[in-house]
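Archive transcription. Copying these from loose printouts into the bound notebook so they stop getting lost. Printout 1 of 2:
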Amino acid sequence: MTADLSTAPGVLAAAADTAPSVVQTIDWLAIAPPTLTALAALLVLVTDLFLPAHRKRLLGYGTLTALAGALVLLIPLRAGDRSTFCVTTGTQACSYTADHFTLVIQALVLGGAFLTVLLSLDDTRGLPVGEYWFLLLASAAGAALLPASRDLATLVVALEVASLPAFALVGIKRGDRRSSEAALKFFLSSVVATAVMLLGVSFVYATTGTLHLTEIADRLADVPPVLDTLAKAGVALTLVGFAFKTAAAPFHFWVPDTYIGAPLPIAAYLSVVGKAVGFSGIILVTVIAFPSYADVWGPALAVLAALTMTVGNVAALRQDGTRARSAVRLLAWSSVAQAGYLLVPIAAAAYSSDEQIGSTVAYALMYAVVNLGAFTVAALVARAHPGNRIADYRGLCTTRPLAALALGFFLLCLAGLPPGIIGLFAKVAVFSAAVDAGLGWLAVVMAVNVVIALYYYLRWTAILFRTPETTVESARARTPRTTGTPASGARGFHAPSPLTTALVLTAAVGVLLSGAPQLVLRFAAVNLF
């Protein structure tokens, strides 16, 4: 007995040497961008309690500063080789990875949130300011976390952190019935999609016994035949929640009413950041976790891409420029169609190489810049015409020539026509991805949809430079007109400096990318993982 006790310390020491450590180290620099954004959200919420009403405008500038700081923190991470929250049992599975894909999407998300703040600074009248900035920062923190997530639990948490504040932001206009209805529809449909996704995640976990994406990929490659059907069901259902966030048909029905009911800056935010969240999730689960089941998600995403771009473009054709049609509703349907194009390279990755994913990233960067620019001009016009009808843009070139030129440029980028060179090249990259993967039928569907989209993009562009209706009516009546302003888009209105800054930034980046498209298209030629 005494001998046993005397050797016990040595035995314990040997066991300690062989047992895995349960203490994880944290790479604080790697997680700094989403962490700073989340801390800023809490700080804004607390500060709002103590600021007098006349100083609450400072919260907006604090939000802007926090997002700028988060963007700056991406610079030391540009090498893209950092991981943290890793399993300590000898495997290489980590829950957070700051690779090149993560950094590009985080830059898109945080940049989109930054521009959303610029659009919102002079558009929060009648809104609870502190809650608004808190919810926007909280959603941006979740959106920045998602592309770095490398296990299904973190992916689901990040998706919900990005989504739940967005529901409140859509319905934040108190007393506005349309805003409340939009938020309710957005919330209920999202909850259903999330429930379906969680069911799929549970099936995947039951099949593999792990939540880490890399380990899921290894174990799905050798699934017993008895569990094959369960694994396929898990793969398909897991994609549902992310397909909802991307507004892929048939999960798109919430988009038009939500964009119309939400504050205009939030509609812009959802059209860019919301899509980035959805596409990041789809890319991560398909390319990293489910490569062995490409025969399941590849055809499904190809069909979704064709259906989404067709539904979006056909619905956008109905926004025919009459007074009853809303410019924001047209942008909503346009965003649905653009989601279809973004899905094409992901579907192509199932048939060829993972490098096809770069085409989606390149297209997403182009789309984010020009779509936010279009929403910026819409916010500018809404200051004179709250209804924001397409007819309200007629003659915009007479009083806001630079805004009209910028919107025309953004619409041509979305259409893929010169001088919007970046839009043209991005569409060619997506088209090439489908052709290289042997998806000739999908390339044909995309080509047809690009032609359809030309009609409503060019029609809107032409409206910008038409003679205002009021001027035409005055000329026909031969009535002298020395004072007054046209009522349909040419009426003068004040452009606040934050809105002007957002327009200048988006236009400058759009022109830069059209002059040097390789800055974005290089992502289409490399493997980001």
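Printout 2 of 2:
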Amino acid sequence: MIRHRVLIVVVACSVAWTFATLSAASMGAEAPPATDGRFEHPRLYFSSDDAAAVAHRRQAAGGGAIWQNLLASADWCREQPPRTEWIPTLAEDPQYENLYDRFYAAMHDAAIVETLAFASALHFEDDDPYFAAAKSQLLAAADVWRHESENPPDAGKAYAVLRVVKSIAVGYDLLYDRLSESERAQVRDSIVPVLRAYFQFFQDPSVAGAGYNKHHGSVDAAPLGVAALALLGDVPEADAWLQMATEKHTGYLLTEALTPSGTNDQSSNFWASTLMYRIQFMDALRRVTGRDLFAEFPRSLPGQMALAAVAGPHPARFDANEPNRSVLFGPNYGQLNYWSPVLVFLAREQRRPIYQYLAAWDETLGTVQRTRFVTPTRKEELLFGYGPYAFLWYDPDIPAEVEPDLPRAFLFPEPAVNEAYLRESFEPGAIAVAMLKGSLVVHAGGRATFVDLTSASDVNKPPEPVEELLVSDDGRRAAIRCVGPKAQDVSEQWVELHRPGVLKVERHTSNPVRWWQMDQPRQEANSFVWPDGVRLQVEVGEIAQVDVHGYVESPVHFGGMKFADPCPHEYQTVEVKPIDGVVKLFIRRP
């Protein structure tokens, strides 16, 4: 999520760059068009030449389901009134409400503009019921967000403004042939001054360089590049904007924005969003110019985090947007419905059935993601509009299946990350375990059965790494050994996964062990039992307290602002006192 005054990652424009005509090296990628100086629209993610491939995708079993989800979201989007009022930046914003009003408004409009434009353009020769709404939302967004050209750029604004400007540029590309020249000019006159202002801002040495936040840098640079690609041939300055965006990626973002182990050093959820924006830019760059950064940077799409952290299916229910429902240590907005479009692209680009398989666990694949984040006064709703990309990137020739000999134990050892994962298998309902700086989450039967009540998952207050974190796996038995965290008076922890179906947790501490668990299991003596037979048993320790309303999960900003959460969750909590300094738990699934 956005944080106030986060510095962006930028590189000053310094070396002349010319388009290279490279073939698409990755299997499954469409060949790029010729770049003889003539750029037709749409061109970013498909063209009229792709009509047959799109029709095939719509008729395929998996692609058809994604298409229907996309259309359902487009139906919802066309019922939303276009925004008419720009939200100015307030000088005094002690709880960051204005910051989030503007951020959520930008994401809301971006999702609606792109979803409707894609739904309209992808109909090709079919009857298109979405064009009128798509044009209306595009032109309204252009009129509202043109005011950002008069709003001095800064790092906090860039995180939101460039994303909505990119979406307006995508809508321009998709609807270009059906817009009048005056309507095209209306869009260009809106976004070109904004892009011009941020291009100048990114050349300021005080904000240029690789030392700033890599996640924000990725989310800023990619939209700049996508917008530039949409405007090539229409706006002379677009060449320089594209050069800057490309140099940001090749100069440091593709090598430094993620850790060597393949995740983000603040949150695994930033792994997903970094890849989402990276892919949107690099996929469009390859199609429009032929330059293939995927081939130039073969390690730029690490997928190990998804193999580790995707724990179960994501239901098509709004109330399933809850932390740890389908992604371990994922926040309520960062579950599989947030990650799945990235997995679809990884499946296509790397020809990996396992990513297709995990993406298919998301019943909402293709939809607009509506979150539980709503600002308290203006009621601005945070949306993510990645559904159309899932449809475009879906390759029906990639089977959705578990590959043989996949790893089932994972370690992300960088001190800032300090995470370990174990999984029983890749079957739905299997046991999956995550440890983050000594804090533990266990998934079994498709829900979280143990979530430590600690602050280890708060990216705004990252704890120190533990003294030692080791992982082993011989196939039948996998284990995590953890020394610490000392701040919670934990000397040692052992987590042992015995395949199939048994997990042992041993914690040496003088403090009570407290956790919350999903779906309100019934208590039977020293055990908690779920309807499907999953059982958590306290083997050593004294159950001191059980509270069915013990943990209320509802978004609150670290500055104190309470969001207008339409669906807060209550969970059962358990407190167990150690006996002789030890707590032992067994978790079994039938």
